[in-house]
Specification:
Number of strands: 17
Number of domains: 2
CATH superfamily of the largest domain: Hexapeptide repeat proteins
Shape: globular
Strand content: 15-25%
Number of helices: 4
Distance between the termini: 45 Å
Amino acid sequence: MQTPPTRIGNGNTIREFVSIHRGTAGGGLVTEIGDDNLLMTYAHVAHDCRIGNHVILGNSVGLAGHVTVEDWADVSPFSGVHQFCRIGQHAFVGPYSVIKQDVMPYSLTSNQPEVQVFGANSVGLARRGFGKAAIEGLQTAFRLLTRAGLNTTQAVERIQAEVGSSPEIEVLLAFIASSERGVIKG
């Protein structure tokens, strides 16, 4: 029987006591970690997880099996992510968060007092060179998704009508449309 692989890219910093489990035969046969990531002490990456590039997993972050963390996401210390959840690109997850649904790309999601979206990850996006118009469009989209009293379908329609199209909005809407667990809104 072939041992399922674990693939770890280049330029990663993997600190003390991090655990990374290999893939399973029933789960795709691979656990994969991209390039230039930081996995802080005691982080746990379970079987069949896929981590993109430039990701930060804080101290004692636990990823259950089959979790996907997209590029440039930041998961703060002592957070746990339920199996089969996705963390979207450029998302920021605050400390002590328990993630049971997908975290939308570009969002600032935290557990204060319950897990919810607080808007766009504007500081992180600005640091990575996103323009003011892109960040403002995302802020409007997150306001419609989380604070306008709309269901997700209604919010998506309003985003398309009011915010229009941009690469970031297209990524956000495609992520929502492909979610199998639902997205955290709050």
